[in-house]
Amino acid sequence: MKTLRPLSALRGSLAATLMAGATMLTPLAAQAEEEKVITAVMHSGLRVLDPVITTAHITRNHGYMVYDVLTAVDENFQPQPQMAEFAVSDDGLTYTFTLRDGLKFHDGAPVTGADVVASLTRWGKRDSGGQMIFDVTANLEATDDKTVVWTLSEPFPPLMNVISKQSAVPPFIMPKRVAETSADETITEYIGSGPFVFETDLYEPGVSVTYTKFDDYVPRDESASWMAGGKVVNVDKVVWTTMPDSLTAINALAAGEIDYLEQVQVDLLPILQSAPDVTVETRDPLGYVTIGRPNFLHPPFDNKKVRQAALEALNQEDVLATMMGDPEYYKVCGAIFGCDTPLGDEAGSEPITSGAHPDKAKALLEEAGYDGTPIVLMAPTDVVSLVNQPVVAAQALRQAGFNVDMQPMDWQTVVNRRAQQSPPAEGGWNIFFTNWMVPEISDPLINVMVNGRGDDAWFGWPTDDAIEALRSDFVAAASDAERKEIAVKIQEHVMDNVNYIHLGEYTMPQARQNTIQNIIPSPVPVFWNMTKGD
Amino acid sequence: MLSYILKRVLATVPVMIIVAVFVFLLLRLTPGDPAAILAGDAATPAQLERIRDNLGLNDPLYVQFFTWTGQMLQGDLGTSLISNTSVSDMIASRLGPTINIAVMTIIISVLLAVPMGVIAAWRHRTWIDFAVMSFSVLGFSVPVFVIGYVLIQIFAIELRWVPVQGYAAPSDGIGNFFIRAILPSLTLATIYVALIARMTRASMLEVLGEDYIRTARAKGVRENTVLFRHALRNAAVPILTIIGTGFALLISGVVVTESVFNIPGIGRLTVDAILARDYPVIQAMILLTAGIYVLVNLLVDISYSIFDPRIRY
Questions:
Q1: pLDDT in the model for residue A15
Q2: Which of A149, A127, A145 is CA-nearest to residue A51?
Q3: Confidence band, pLDDT 50/70/90 cuts, at residue B253
């Protein structure tokens, strides 16, 4: 008579089979030991490889791996030389850039002034700050292989800050033949002069991207500080892998299968607390802001008092607490240019930072003669960081007497619909919410929401001559003190006119194996300087 | 048989044309703008318009349709609007993981479910039958991601027998492939085991009541032979149908399982493409899925005649 094998025997044979499989993994593991590889899970998959055509953060991060920049801001927001030293003429009209020695593209060709001119020209067609500089550009030319001279027709004092910015579209330097691609088409060759080489053959869009150390890269001598200073690469390879499921990424980190997780969902952090080999920390000292944008073209938000009522009705604390949960990762802060930035100031922000004021909102609505016109509030359902704001805002607005028509949709539909200028009942909208990195809103030239040029402004299209005059004053301001003074006036104006509703700041923690050290604290995650121990 | 296969293959042509027209129009009527995804949040309307021009999205619909179908007829699936890479290459790199996991899932499912169904029918109304049916209900009812997370917790995190996530092709070593594919395959197999076991049981119960089974038993044929040679073979047609449909479903993408186990398969490719409104990728994926369904159904129909000689085409 046949007998059943005991369960323990079965378990043993299964374990043996799996161990045999694991043993076959050894060659891969050994290979990994030979070369230092950092496996990182980034906040999203890389799908667009052109860091000039898009403002997508993941593509910008890719840009910093593969390309270098002429100058870059350090942690004190000061522009510093990176590929080039720079000098400004006394009249503020001529900027001279001198490329440092040893700069090479990944194909071995030297970086020349002609490459820089072509790259800046293409960037100037995409970036809003770049467009403003090119509006006053008299001439941009390479006077020799190492020198680029940029001549303006009128002074543009913030020029160095604009070309040194770290987000959203920094002027990455590409070979001339690549940079000559139309600014409205994506590039098809991915050669830079940055510290890492992009491995085309190993790239799978949205799945995985591999970078290897560029052996011929010559780092600067200064210590790394944000995007400035010496970019010293201490590993052989960096692999970004995409994990659409946050829990899987956390489990993979806890199990030691990956080295670095760029963003951890705060509600999943307790899982990592029991992982002794993992450190959770905040890398980005500035973080993000979340905002609501009203549509100025249609009732009721074409009325300033109704916009003010919305500002009084909403409350940063409620929105942020719902989004993040843990107060350690959010901050009530009314500064539209960011709390910890040189231009940050909270003037006039009391309506949104001191709790909800539904009674004041009701009074303002009555004063405005609000007739109950429904507010079409677009609520994306497929982007985790944007799911909560519309729900909290809708409830707060209803409590203040607004008639809210919250319409759930996917983010792509929001993106499509927010571009429609038609009335809300005919496919338009009244309000939507989005997030920005603080460096993307940290001054009046970068922050698209303080643009008041009507149809040429960002979605919502305010026609606001007063803010445009202030922005012109900002461009013309000669000193940091003067710029700060104007920034405060813009802050007060935005809070009074409610160009948008600033809903506070939050940070996303990162997590790493303890073997990963020397990460540069910076808004953009970078892999130079980083070390991997055994 | 050959003329039947030819007829069936020819019949797929109008099906594919209808699917192509329908998908193309549906996508163009759905709100969304690939140019906005490409350019990002701060792009101005004028910049978006120029990008749309370059991508050909401002051309009249009929021009876009005939450009696409012209490319398709030459075997060119086009280029992704977002990543600017060949759609054929994208699908080729994603199809392998999906097919391999699907094959492993179906093998596990058939090996477990068919004997379970046969035994349940053989021991009808006993505790064995009850147990199989209970498992079946459980398999249907528990969401696949829950099963996935539970298996990860037990086998990857607690016991550390297998990795939490990832995929390795069989060409990287059978062991590598096996230890990464086993959990997703078991996860997916749960529902198919339930489905196939139920279908096998029902089909076997019907056949076991037939006269020729009683005759075989009366002649003293061994029970194993009765069950597996006489009964199962005659009960095979509905079981094969279920297996075929299941396989086609698995090939057309199982996005939740692919996400939970981080498998770069075509389910994720399709969902990512839909969220980005990457028209060429979505169109190619839907046509591919339709083609797979047609092919699998044809193979299933042909296999009927192998198992049941009474069926002739």
A1: 42
A2: A127
A3: low
Contacts of A123 (CB under 8 A, 6+ apart): A52, A130, A169, A171, A172
CA B226 to chain centroid, in Å, comes to 33
**CA–CA separation, A118 vs A135, rounded Å?**
17
B251, pLDDT greater than 60: yes
Chain B 30-89, residues with CB within 8 Å of chain A CB atoms:
31-33, 36-45, 47-48, 50-51, 53-54, 80, 82-85
CB pairs under 8 A between A and B: 157
Q: Flag the least confident range among A219-233, B109-123, B239-253.
A: B239-253
**Taking residues A237-262, what's their average pLDDT?**
95
Q: Are B102 and B247 in contact (CB under 8 A)?
A: yes
CA-to-CA distance for A217 and A106, rounded, in angstroms? 9
**Length of chain B, please?**
313
Instruction: Please give the ipTM for the structure prediction.
Output: 0.87
- Which of B33, B44, B58, B258 to mutate: most A Cβ within 10 Å? B44
- Please report which helix (H) or strand (E) contains residue A80, including its range: strand A79-81
pTM above 0.90, yes or no: no
Mutate to test the interface with A, among B30, B41, B90, B268 (most CBs of A within 10 A): B41
Q: Distance (Å, rounded) from C-alpha B118 to C-alpha B198?
A: 10
Provide the residue type at A237 as one letter.
K
Distances in Å between the Cα of A133 and the Cα atoms of A157, A478, B152 are 10, 16, 54
DSSP state of A463: B
- What integer pLDDT is reported at residue B147 of this predicted model? 95
- Displacement of CA A412 from its chain's centroid (Å): 19
Torsion of Cα atoms, B257 then B260 then B266 then B270, to 10°: 100
* pLDDT at A28 (0 to 100): 42
The token duo for A229 is: 């200073």
